[in-house]
Amino acid sequence: MDSSPSTSRSPASEEADRERAKTCEKKNEGLGWMEWMRGWLYLAYEMFFQRITASHLPNPMPLPHLHEVTCVITGCTSGIGLQIARQLAESGAHVVMAVRNTKAAHELSQKWQSEWSGMGLPLNVEVMELDLLSLESVVRFTEAWNARSAPLHVLINNAGIFSIGEPQKFSKNGYEEHLQVNHLAPALLSLLLLPSLIRVLRVELLI
């Protein structure tokens, strides 16, 4: 005769388990909303704090003449990156717009040239394709740039993404998109451009 204990459960126990599962689900939903709200509150605080701390600064801040200075800037078709690229270009720098949307970058470059016309030398703006969601694109960009054997004075890793409340997405390289765009791709870009960045130091030492 089988003396093993019975595994059957009473209806009351099953109902209690279902209630516990529902309670856990509601708690998880509540925590999700709390994380969402905390993210937006943090963003609002950062923006407000930056406005206060930067309120005394002249707008725009004057820049020195930057002729013969080459700058690569990612994510410069909108927001802060756009303003950085334009200010550097108007100060005489050779600005390389490293962007995914090259059409938008070319349109911006033409607009800047038109608005700058008659105020000095033509702006030295170049557009190159770079998609941080593709590590292969980062490698292609750096290979093309390093092949020029030209010095690179400034690299501004401005591009980034910040998605709140959206489903988690992964790049074709298998990494979570925030991790790749905000961390992995900029790190790879910086490392692979080191030969061009170091070349500036070598030239200065020779001079």
From TrEMBL:
Please give the superkingdom of this protein's source: Eukaryota
Please give the InterPro entries that the UniProt record associates with this protein: NAD(P)-bd_dom_sf, SDR_fam
Q: Where are the transmembrane segments?
A: none
Composition bias type Basic and acidic residues, residue spans: 15-24
**Gene3D superfamilies from the entry?**
NAD(P)-binding Rossmann-like Domain
> Residue spans with biased composition (Low complexity)?
1-13
Q: Where is this region: Disordered?
A: 1-24
Q: Which Pfam families match?
A: adh_short
SUPFAM superfamilies, per the entry: NAD(P)-binding Rossmann-fold domains
| Record-level Gene Ontology MF annotations | oxidoreductase activity
Keywords for this protein: Oxidoreductase
Q: Would the keyword Oxidoreductase turn up in this protein's UniProt record?
A: yes
The text of the family note is: Belongs to the short-chain dehydrogenases/reductases (SDR) family.
**Record's PANTHER family?**
DEHYDROGENASE_REDUCTASE SDR FAMILY MEMBER FEY, RETINOL DEHYDROGENASE
Name of the protein in its database record:
Uncharacterized protein
| Species whose genome carries this gene | Stephania cephalantha
